[in-house]
Amino acid sequence: MGSIPDPGELTELAQPSFDDFQRQTSLMTSCTLLWKELSDHFSSLEQDLLNKSEALNRKICSLDNQTNESLNVLRHRESTLDDALQIALRDIDKRTEAALAALTRVKEDVAEGDGDGEVDNGEGLMLKLKSFCLNMDALGFWGFLIGKKKELEGLRAEMPDALEECIDPAKFVLEAISEVFPVDKRGDKGGNDLGWACVLVLESLVPVMVDPVLKSRMLVTPSVKELAKDIAEKWKVSLEERGGVENVKTPDVHTFLQHLVTFGIVNSDDLQLYRKLVIASAWRKHMPKLALSLGLSNQMPDMIEELISKGQQLDAVHFTFEVGLVDKFPPVPLLKSFLKDAKKVAASILEDPNNAGRASVIFSSF
């Protein structure tokens, strides 16, 4: 049999260590804190999930409400389409009779006057435009329009109302400008640039074709939209044949870009082309608005930087005001830089005795 351990020795071995006790206490405290931290973390995650779930449910409800409203609007439009069509037809008949009667009165007044067949007042201009539109005489309309450049403001005011008389305004406009866009059929003997007339007609078509309910949508039939796309592609091909962006006239660029916006056929794959065209014709006052309509808003800061680097500070200032980037591109330093560069150019011209008169004109404008 083995020896019996000494009781005193057993007591000494069984006595707990204070260090062990402290370690265990520290371990329990750490475990408690860790548990609390994990518990708080999971509670926070749970609350975040609940908040996100509630926000998602609110968005779903909002979308459902919007969808229901849109469906109700569409149902209402569908249910009233026949009535609206009958009203429109009656209205067209009335306006046709009124326009023809007014034209007859104007012709009688002219016959009693100087007999030159021209009416120089606003009513006469409007009546003639409406007459072409009512008869869908696109070529006659175009011939009349290009001879009235001196009455541009009157044309701009009357054109949308006149185009409303067309059975198919979009197709009418495409046919009217077809002589010069997408390709000038007049060839080298084209004479005066008619881009102003193309832009005027395309801009005037916008309010005529806007959906009265969904304002952001253009009411263009699929067949006309496809035709407009084909025209845009033909213009791009002609652009390459003419030597690229550097060799195209600004009125042509303006017409092309307005064509895209008017018919809602902007192609995201062509954004770089649009940017080059806008930069090349940046001096045109409509370019900043067209750039935004073409989807170039994100590229505006870089485009303004490019204009500045090319010495086109005035154009850059125009763009900054149009797109709301005045804080990022303060106009005063840009204008001072432009003035400095202009004086240098004038001074260099002044040194040439053949251009002294031109330099004096530049200096007198400062």
TrEMBL record:
Under InterPro entries, the record lists: Frigida (IPR012474)
Name one matching Pfam family: Frigida
The keyword Nucleus appears for this protein: no
Task: Report keywords, A-Z.
Answer: Developmental protein, Differentiation, Flowering
Bilayer-crossing residues are none
Q: Name one GO biological process term.
A: cell differentiation
Name the family the entry cites. Answer: Belongs to the Frigida family.
* Entry protein name: FRIGIDA-like protein
Q: Which organism is it from?
A: Pisum sativum
